[in-house]
Amino acid sequence: MKRFLACLTALVAAVTFAVTFAVTAAPSAAAPSAAATMANTLTIYFIDVEGGKAALIVTPSGESFMIDAGFASNGRFNSMPDDPAKARDAQRVLLAAHDAGLTQIDHLLVSHYHADHFGAVMELAQLIPINEFIDHSAPSAAAEARVPGTFALYNDYVALRSKAKHHAAKAGDHFVLKDGVDIDVVASGGVVITKPLSGGGANNPACTSGGVPAQEVAENPNSTAIRLEYGAFSYLDVGDLTGPPLYALTCPVNLIGLADVYNIAHHGGADGSDPSLFEAVKPRAAIFSNAARKGAEAATLNTLRSLGIAGWQLHRTEQPGAVNMPDAQIANLDTTTTAWFKLSARRDGSFSITNGRTGQTISYPKR
Ligand SMILES: [Zn+2]
């Protein structure tokens, strides 16, 4: 009954969403119904937080694992939490949670302590209960020196975290969710796993350089990175992990195996462009959590294009020299829309991605 009500709620939310956005997002005939989608698929929403990061993972029976939530308040890097009713990104996350029929977030992973990833958490917690916080413990003095205001936001977060369950993530941690969904922590706090995941362990012949230096060295390389498995389907999400820890995931040995979908490091900035990771992990779709002038840089788009990997951009990029992916794989062509990507994955490894702006779905068969 509970399940039925949840499905009904999701259905109503989906219909409401479709009606609300009928002008820009006519659902395609190919899109499966919400009820059918929920029964046997894992869902991931890639939410537009204007160059921040927010991904909501929902298992078939409704257990939720969120990675980051976007900016606080009006969405600036120095914004502090304010009225949740007016919080741009927390409200967008809430819309996705309602679309999924959720009444709580079971687990929230804060990948690292930058405002574009955890600024919205304090407001989100006032809109929907968050049962568990997962993070790499605490930002360093260097992180505060590099981005003044990090500690102020972190102190707000600690006040919230202290009232709920908290897990300090370490490389090698393993989470078991409902419906056979497994999550491995592959890096956290600058430390990377040393023992390969099952499916990993092969030498990576694509490692030809020392990787690309991190654009931000104090906090991004501390990001907590995870690889998720649902049957034969796999998903890699590394937050803003860059520099040596990102390189170490797949060089000289590919420690993490394959990933069908990869949420590209650091919004798809140039420091996430090293082909060695893409060649090892072989993603069939790669997500850019970008804005028009943040992330999705030319170098990374070029890497994808040279390897024949489908890139999915939350925004059309205006970065110098960058050649955009086809419009069908861009959620927002300008700042007038706030569409998401909704991914549906099945145990056999097949998956599809629906562009919230157009309602069109592109399907990927099992490997
Ligand atoms: Zn970021």
Question: What does this protein look like?
Answer:
With 367 residues, this protein is an alpha/beta fold. The protein has helices at 2-20, 34-40, 88-99, 115-118, 121-127, 141-146, 150-161, 244-250, 275-281, 298-307; strands at 42-46, 54-58, 64-69, 107-109, 132-135, 165-168, 174-177, 181-188, 191-192, 202-203, 225-230, 233-237, 253-254, 261-263, 285-288, 310-315, 330-332, 341-345, 351-355, 361-364. Helix content is 25%, strand content 23%. It has one domain: Metallo-beta-lactamase, Chain A (4-Layer Sandwich). It binds zinc ion. The site of zinc ion has 6 residues, from helix 4. Zinc ion is lined by residues 53, 114, 116-117, 240, 267.
